[in-house]
Amino acid sequence: QVQMVQSGAEVKKPGASVKVSCKASGYTFTSYGISWVRQAPGQGLEWMGWISAYNGNTNYAHKLQGRVTMTTDTSTTTAYMELRSLRSDDTAVYYCARGLSSAWPDYFDYWGQGTLVTVSS
Amino acid sequence: EIVLTQSPGTLSLSPGERATLSCRASQSVRSSYLAWYQQKPGQAPRLLIYGASSRATGIPDRFSGSGSGTDFTLTISRLEPEDFAVYYCQQYGSSPLTFGGGTKVEIK
Q1: Would the CB atoms of A44 and B88 count as touching at under 8 Å?
Q2: Cβ–Cβ below 8 Å for B45 and A50
Q3: How are beta strands B54-55 and A3-6 bridged, if at all?
C-alpha cells in the first residue's frame, strides 16, 4: 500500500534552515510528483511547491521563491523540502503529498503524516 | 493567482441532515480541475473528490461534487458522525495551486 512517512518534529531558531524528508513506498516513485503543503496553527492549507520525481522539475509558490528547495532521491524514494531563513511565521505542520502527474502539479491522493516545524528564539 | 472562497465558514447540522458546501473561484478553473479534501483534527487531509465530480477511491457515495467554471459544490447527502470535520477545496488548473479557506461542519 502507498505510504508517505515524514521525518520528525523540528525546533529551529529564526534565520536557520530546516530540511524535512518524506519517504515514499508502495508505488513507482518516478511515475508521480510530490507537492509540499503547510498548515500554520489553526489555519488553512498553503501549497508550497511541487517536484517531479521523474525528472526533478520544480514549481514553487512565488512567496517562497529563493527560500525553498525541493529535491528527490530516486535511489531511496525520498523527497526533501529545505526552507531557509526561517521566520516565526514559518511555524507550521509541513505535509508531503503525492500528485497524480509527474509532469505538472496535480491533486493529492496520498499524504504524509505531517512534520511540525517550530521557529522560536 | 486563483483565489478560492468557501462558504459558509461554519455549518452546524445534525447527523442525517444534508450538507451543501460552496467553493467560488476568482476566475474560471481550467478543465474543472478542482478537488475537495476532508481534514479531522490532528490528521492529514484526505482526498474526497477530484475533477470537480469524481469520487476518490474508497469514498462513500453520500459525498458528491458538482460545478464548473467558477462555482463548485460539495454535497454530503446524509451526515454520518464521522463526517464532522473541516473541508477544503483546491484548484490545480493553474499555478500556483490554491486552497480555499475551509468550511467547518460541526454537530448542531
Answers
A1: yes
A2: no
A3: unpaired
